[in-house]
Design a protein that fits this description.
Blueprint (H helix, E strand, L loop, with lengths): L1 E5 L14 E6 L2 H10 L4 E4 L2 H8 L5 E4 L8 H6 L18 H12 L3 E6 L11 E3 L2 E5 L18 H8 L11 H6 L4 H20 L26
Parallel strand pairs: 1-2, 1-4, 2-3, 4-5
Antiparallel strand pairs: 5-7, 6-7
């Protein structure tokens, strides 16, 4: 299966995917180098993911996109701005509409399986999505609900986030590791969504309809490996 992993970061979502040929797109060269080290079998391209999607979406069986979430974030708005409007140093910010550009383009043009992931926004979503697992999702396949406990973001340190995301960045000389880890989708959630997409593909190929079943059971958490810190 050919997979396009957009805005790949250091690949938290990708950690538990198996049997895939992945093309990862990341704008930051420094972060892309970390991804290459963690996933040497993947092709990593340093470029604008938004533009790459439009040019290459027809080439893949499954597309995952996680556009930048800061301008949509509840934490930035509710805690950074709204809780202290008079003295807040958090400036007003246009929500990044590339998120909805990608959702609408994929919805109406893409025949492959696709998913767009983002933070649950501080405003009512302009396109209805599924809120589960601490994220909001838009897709052309059914994602069954998943609960996985706290994401550990608000008070999380680099150390606690590395444990939560199962990725160790200690040996890498990159800035703002805490934000990089906060941007990661939890590996078990990435696997859950990926398996939902796989199941939908199999149903489509077999001509089977009906409601999807949950592909992950209570053993899911035991499948998350220790934090990785180098190539496999």
């Amino acid at each position: 299966m050919r997979v396009l992993n957009l805005y790949a970061g250091v690949g938290g979502n990708r950690l538990l995917w198996e049997g895939v040929e992945v093309t990862a797109v990341e704008y930051s060269a420094d972060i892309a180098e970390v991804y290459k080290d963690l996933y040497p079998q993947d092709e990593v391209i340093v470029t604008d993911a938004h533009a790459y999607l439009l040019e290459h979406y027809k080439e893949f069986d499954f597309i995952w996109s996680s556009p930048p979430c800061q301008s949509h974030s509840q934490i930035r708005y509710n805690i950074g701005f709204k809780a202290n409007r008079k003295y807040s140093k958090v400036a007003a910010k246009y929500p990044d509409m590339k998120l909805y550009e990608e959702i609408l383009m994929l919805k109406y043009y893409c025949q492959s399986k696709w998913v767009v992931e983002n933070t649950i926004p501080f405003y009512p979503p302009l396109v209805e999505g599924l809120k589960t697992g601490g994220h909001i999702w838009w897709s052309n396949f059914e994602i069954t609900p998943i609960e996985h406990g706290t994401r550990g973001h608000r008070g999380g340190t680099v150390e606690t986030l590395q444990d939560r995301k199962a990725i160790n960045l200690d040996k890498y000389s990159i800035g703002n590791k805490r934000q990089i880890l906060r941007n990661c989708v939890e590996p078990e959630v990435g696997k859950h969504v990926f398996l939902c997409a796989q199941q939908s593909m199999h149903q489509t190929a077999a001509g089977v309809g009906g409601r999807a079943v949950n592909p992950l059971q209570s053993s899911l958490f035991a499948e998350v490996p220790p934090a990785i810190s180098g190539g496999w």
